[in-house]
Protein 1
Amino acid sequence: MLNPNEVKTVLETALLANQSPLSIAELRRMFDEDIGADTLRRLLDELRDDWRERGVELVNLATGWRFQTRPSFQKYLERINPERPPRYSRAVLETLAIIAYRQPVSRGDIEDIRGVTVSPGIMRTLEQRGWIDVVGHRDVPGRPALYATTKDFLNDLGLRSLQELPPLEDIARTLDLNAAPSNEEVFPEARAGEPAERPAETAPEKA
Amino acid sequence: MLNPNEVKTVLETALLANQSPLSIAELRRMFDEDIGADTLRRLLDELRDDWRERGVELVNLATGWRFQTRPSFQKYLERINPERPPRYSRAVLETLAIIAYRQPVSRGDIEDIRGVTVSPGIMRTLEQRGWIDVVGHRDVPGRPALYATTKDFLNDLGLRSLQELPPLEDIARTLDLNAAPSNEEVFPEARAGEPAERPAETAPEKA
Amino acid sequence: MSQALQQHGVQATIPTPVATAKIHGQLLTELPSDLYIPPDALEVFFETFEGPLDLLLYLIRKANVDILDIPMARLTEQYLEYVEVMRRKNLELAAEYLVMAAMLMEIKSRMLLPRPRALEQGEEDPRAELVRRLIEYEKVKQAARKLDELPQVGRDYFCVEVWIEQTLTERVPNVCAADLESAWRSLLTRARVTQHHRITREELSVREHMSAILRRLSGAGFVEFTTLFDPGRGVAVLIVSFLAVLEMARESLIEFTQAMPYAPIYVKLAYAQSE
């Protein structure tokens, strides 16, 4: 029978040895004795506290718990592995934002919002990164694929759910430097993680 | 200017974030200030001591330093990512079945029953597993070895004697009678990971 | 045109001479003097736009006008100027820019219709759809920026994954009795070896004893016949052992020797490898 400290050591070891987040269920599976999920959660919280002063932190993500380096240490780590992942172009980032905030969306939806065609390369970039995938097809001619963000997207950006995406700003007010009347009624805010209302007239898909 | 403890934290972070060993030279590269190799080595030794009671240890290998899990924790880690247990091929299983039910048998006997040659690799697999061994030689030209199953075979299969193997009489009779046997009996369920025997008439899956 | 821009209080700076900027390798010399051009190279400047909506938002921001009350005539005019420059400079002009130009002109003309009547009929402001799209796109732009600011794995931090030290135990397949049974069944169905290989429980115990006796005899030379049997294990085992010996004799696996009647019977392997 392991005492709580030994359980913590096992948890720490498993989390340090696994790059992908581990769920409570996966962590429980390690132990012969049946350790309650609550107990594990408490020990994980303790573990997180234990690591507070270190260059590595324990975070709770969409699919579980993971150790990752703190961004403030990146400047040191980069000197060991100089190759950096490419920064994404605005086209990629905007496409990603549309999928993240308006999912599920088709390529046509994205093109309507951005006002330009979306190259297949953009979608491929995001798919290959494992951040988006096809979750269905819209039942209209051409049966366009509907894209949504994945759990990996959340994990890789340190989010537990779409609710944690940065809130969309009230744009009209930002743009309107002359303090215009509230646009609340006219342009209701769509919320992150909530599928946007797609007016019928924006529907037609590009094949 | 980092103090020794801060340097240690950076070292720890870099080593935790890299699976491959990091050399002193690589580690030195992280710091703006020129930290002597001796100092780094001393700090790494300290770090190794800091981790003495944990499930992960800092080791000094030919090409550098690396954090790795202690072997004693492997039993826990294995339960998180249960690799699919390896399986024996049908050829190995059939050979083993023949030896179990027909022992003592020569390779020639096995080939007669299976209708194909038995590769030396199959016999070696079973011998190395300690499940079969040579109990004699038949007094015919070539003096073929006679194989039988071992005590380890019984132990590993949880049997007290060969008599606890499933009797085969009924099956043979079922087949003999040719009385439209139920699929269940004639074509036992194939197990995952093993190529199923597909009777011709139920054959090819549509892609 | 610069007059029009100035009338509306638009930032209609006369372009600073950008003689050093190059477009397609040529010095940039013939800019329309009435167009506001930021002091960047024109090509680079246009490339920063992600499309017509982006360009429109830029113009609106520059003009510092209310997005909910866009002065359509001015915006359309400016937009067309930019598109014209792009076209003249042979910059790659996406079709979307022309579509947008047409849309702007259409909205502008609808704005010229007598307003009161239109409003009476409950008609929407002709600009409404454009404004909706502009706002939506601006939101996306900001969201994209914020997403990019989130710490990103690989770029801003790494995942920790220490080496898992594997002990040297080799993973071996598990087999259970049922696997053997099914292997045998598949043999039977394939080869139809039914007659010859029917195996009963009783026969199995004989074969088990055959193996055991072979093991016992290997390397032992002559063994006295009676020592092959252990009466202490009961009559059943005794009989099975005897059957095993008989079967081995039949299969020529063992040989018997007896010097004279009633003398001890000795058993040895028919063939011992050590010989």
Protein 2
Amino acid sequence: MIRDERISADELRRIDDEIRSNWSTGDAVDFEEAIDYHESLPPKKRFADVLESADKPLLQPRAGVPRLDDQVELLEYLHGEGKADLLPTTIDSYTRDNEYEKAQEGLEKARDTGEDTLNGFPAVNHGVEGCRELIDAIDAPIEVRHGTPDARLLAAITFAGGFQSFEGGPISYNIPYTKRHGLEETIEKWQFVDRIAGAYTERGVRINREPFGPLTGTLVPPSIAIAIMLVEGKLAATQGVRSITLGYGQVGNIVQDVAALNALKKLGNEYLPDEVVVTTVFHEWMGGFPPDEARANGVISLGGMTASIAQPDKVITKSPQEFQGVPTKEANSAGLRTTRQVIDMAIEQQIDIDGIEEEQDLIERETRCLMDTIFEHGDGDVVQGTIQAFDSGALDVPFAPSDSAAGAVLPARDDDGRVRIFEWADLAMDDDIKEIHKARLSQRADTEGRDQSFRMVADDVDAISDGKLIGRPQGGA
Amino acid sequence: MIRDERISADELRRIDDEIRSNWSTGDAVDFEEAIDYHESLPPKKRFADVLESADKPLLQPRAGVPRLDDQVELLEYLHGEGKADLLPTTIDSYTRDNEYEKAQEGLEKARDTGEDTLNGFPAVNHGVEGCRELIDAIDAPIEVRHGTPDARLLAAITFAGGFQSFEGGPISYNIPYTKRHGLEETIEKWQFVDRIAGAYTERGVRINREPFGPLTGTLVPPSIAIAIMLVEGKLAATQGVRSITLGYGQVGNIVQDVAALNALKKLGNEYLPDEVVVTTVFHEWMGGFPPDEARANGVISLGGMTASIAQPDKVITKSPQEFQGVPTKEANSAGLRTTRQVIDMAIEQQIDIDGIEEEQDLIERETRCLMDTIFEHGDGDVVQGTIQAFDSGALDVPFAPSDSAAGAVLPARDDDGRVRIFEWADLAMDDDIKEIHKARLSQRADTEGRDQSFRMVADDVDAISDGKLIGRPQGGA
Amino acid sequence: MSRCPIDPGTMSQTVVLGVIGSDAHVVGITILEQAFDAAGFDVINLGVQTSQEEFAEAALEHDAAAVLVSSLYGHAEQDCQGFHETLESADIDATTYIGGNLAVGQDDFEETRATFEALGFDRVFDSETDTEEAVAALTRDLRQQTPETERATISS
Amino acid sequence: MSRCPIDPGTMSQTVVLGVIGSDAHVVGITILEQAFDAAGFDVINLGVQTSQEEFAEAALEHDAAAVLVSSLYGHAEQDCQGFHETLESADIDATTYIGGNLAVGQDDFEETRATFEALGFDRVFDSETDTEEAVAALTRDLRQQTPETERATISS
Ligand code: B12
Ligand code: B12
């Protein structure tokens, strides 16, 4: 039975050998040589150090194209023109499915036609050498961003290739990203990913790990996201990771977002071992965007505004073309610069908004309920607890496409635009907390003169892309 | 000696006859017939009613091109694509100088070449008929926006032409807009403008008047702007105007901007007669913009954010192309939609920021000092008081190009980014208030490790276009 | 708000719905499911990451009148190669729609529409599609195929 | 911050500065005045809404080495017609610069530069110009015109 325990050295070696044989480029991974390579990197390419020592929120976009030279050009542009502090390399969907063969076809087609036939950078296919060419070319730290349930080979190759930060985790890259992977399976696979990150860490190469906070990106109640961040942070710490960036996706209500980021930071430090350096990342609105670049800029700016108040360590920016498809490099840089301008104009201002402590307190209490249920379900073991809690529905994520989550919890905004829970299903939560949500939601229902229903949820899902925060009935209230 | 007294009916007729002979189109003005025309307009074209009955901030852009059909097309676009609630017609610079001959040349050149050889719509040259074609074509209220020291003919023609809102005032369209016009002269001329607006008002056609709050647009301390708004509001009220929209230009510090808008509303209601309906307008940042549309969108959004908290009756939007030159209609609409998205996402949220009351209190006290000095200088008469107070420097506007203002007052931002006064010159202000400013500014000087100097002022002037709010020394603090 | 379900006619109107390929964007089909359901259709929601074969099986099993394919992540074109052949070889003659973000990057939708029509889809929807629009279109399309009742043609 | 004034040379270096036409944008020249002053020039600031004749009179009176024209409001081209003829007829042979927002609307700066060079200006600056840039350019231009001292040519 899988538990929250460190993978043994033997086991690590065995799995490592095994997964490296999954694709031809696996052979080139040599841990000792990789350590040398990392040590040769200048300080400004060391992800954890750059992030942890920053004195204001660092900005990072999302970006990945199939061909290496295009990826270099893209990242250079985002760094130069977009003034990104940290850079990403987003991996294509075939690689996420471990379909390296299909990724290879896509890559070759991209090379032949010059078109972007993959929706990201197939790092496994590019191999250790390809990755290092990218790391060498770019004058800033780069993170691997993906959405891969089984990211073992991707991690082995990209870490050896010089990347020092790796997004994802066994829940956050399972529940929102895939239907059929069991949680037990993804946890086991991510223990390996974390273990190699830990192995590098022990040799002085601190690989930064970043659980994916936004989950399904769609009205996720803060406490659910935070609980999952804490679990993934704990699992990573057990495997020896020492630089962990907990994530959170903007819901659009400033008070709730600031409160959530505060709670994330506080509980992160509380629940994770002392030897871990905990940082936070704020994702600009991850749900459906307006089909209009001008309005999208407003959404992005509201994110910047929130970041300037909450001051997370990092902000993942969106582009004004988010609605349409993968953005051009110009649009991607524009999203960075719009965010930067808002943050830089607002960050020196003292903006203390009423009610943040109260909301933070609520979020913390909710999160503790969820953490308690996890520990109880696992009899103290967080791995078993997570698996069982998802199984019983005591832990759940709204709009989860995965068979591993009930996906029965339904969120809706209250009259102030804060995300509350409308349908609890089996989510483990104290009754007094449920009452608070209920009261807030019935206040909204009153304002709108309609019943709470799935229709309200659907309206909230569309609201921001339709230009509002709250999905009020049209022509109503 | 000119005083704050209503122009007599005889006098009104005399001046009216005189100014209408200044340009050929003046003949077509017929007051009685104009009243009929206004009465024929549908409710949605009645500026004052639409503005005063709105339940959230209405958006209005700036826009003016020389040719009538182009202006119709432009306003239709801003209404349709930009979703502007209220529309503008910005007048060209020759008309502002009463150089109707030159405006005519420009207009003819524009008609011949299709190029925009004037920086606005020469309404006097288009005449009553031309104006009405525009009013008839556009399905929303339209305001005349200009910057004309002697706007008598412009007012006579545009009011007869169906416009129901008119920007400007004797101080706000003198001090920032012209060098050589004396205040006594512009007050006399604007008394006439206000008097015709009053004459229409008495006949049931409530012409809305909007003093230009931003003044020089460059770090204007709120109390100076508000005092001038109160004076211009009072002058208009004396001439019978009953719908007055007091303006204020964003300084970029949210607390100070919200406090200023609150103070403007409160003092407006206090200082203006009860029979006047006072509304407020917030101008998005009127100083130098960043030379980058993406960053400009950030500036615009911060304005939207501020508006969503302060909830003025109207917001004048900027476009992302503000830096470069007169914006394309697409960019102008984009500015509207970005603002709209931010306001609509934030306006239903309860955002109570600490310190607003305190800042509002300070602004009110400062404004009262200035109003007191005006009344004292004029022995109770606000016209004489204003003239004398500007003359003595007791009332002043920073960066005033006009010979009628000392232009000796210098603003600088404090450590929180609020605009304070660094050089008081002869401005009438209680010592304890001066001490507060001094303390705030020396706190900033300490943070930056440099002396207060004109260099700091210059850095603040450039700061927003350089991407920050406060002009810190580079590489410093 | 009052709901006005559009009467889809008398015969059983089963709609099979799913996200194709390895795409996991579930929110769109969740909303679509609710809309078709509210309009009176029987909806079989296969969820995300559905293969061509799974679409075919479900359509056959439920005698579906329509198969609605969703794709958001940018690989729709690859994922739909041979989709209609798969349906045909199972003797399925359902109305087929596809919708979502059908191309990688900032593409022109008219080109995209042509591509997917060439692949055999009866209608192609972009991601700005209102659910009501899709429901109305399907209601019309299915009525026109109902021979037993006489109906005035509704222009599309 | 330490200030490093660029020594403009030994001879009197008077600079006449103003905003032409009926333009009232004063902030730019206020900043320029301060920058040229800090760099050691004698600055005569004529302020806003200055006519061609006023520029010529001031240049003559102060034996100006340079005349700096600013325009922001979009009518620069009309306002500067015949400007250099006005200077010439007063026998003024000063270096002339123009800067600011020189065209109405969203124009291409290279075209604008050509237009104003054709009108006779020695240098044309856009509104992104840093004051230091303008000071450095004028310092160079004036040095090159100083025959009594030998100087290495600084490439522009
Ligand atoms: C939320 C979101 C996510 C969530 C999804 C959570 C989940 N499991 O559902 C997360 C964060 C996990 C995610 C992941 C990814 N995403 Co995503 N995501 C979005 C986002 C922001 C919103 C999608 C959404 O939920 N919209 C709300 C719903 C209600 O609208 P909808 O899905 O468009 O559906 C409506 C219409 O399209 C239409 N419709 C849809 N299907 C059909 C079918 C028919 C027949 C009809 C008639 C109509 C119809 O009706 C629906 C209801 O109104 C979009 C961008 C956007 N639109 O703003 C990107 C977007 C779709 N994602 C994108 C990408 C690239 C990815 C990733 C590949 C990369 C990554 N960054 O990790 C992964 C893919 C993982 C995978 N295996 O699928 C791209 C797709 C690019 C392209 N097509 O060119 C987009 C456009 C973002 C972008 N600009 O880059 N994503
Ligand atoms: C503040 C402002 C105003 C204030 C001016 C107050 C005052 N009296 O100074 C007010 C509100 C009154 C105003 C009025 C108008 N304005 Co105005 N204004 C601006 C704004 C926002 C900032 C200008 C500024 O102060 N910048 C800060 C200073 C430090 O920079 P600067 O002026 O550019 O100067 C620097 C450089 O350009 C350069 N430079 C300038 N001159 C020279 C000369 C030389 C030789 C050199 C080397 C360098 C140089 O160095 C300077 C210092 O760094 C600009 C848009 C922008 N830039 O963001 C519009 C702008 C200049 N205004 C514009 C217009 C159209 C007007 C009006 C005609 C219309 C109106 N809306 O009422 C009136 C004109 C009235 C008149 N008679 O002049 C347009 C001009 C359009 C064009 N050229 O195509 C602009 C670009 C706005 C826009 N996008 O439409 N304005």
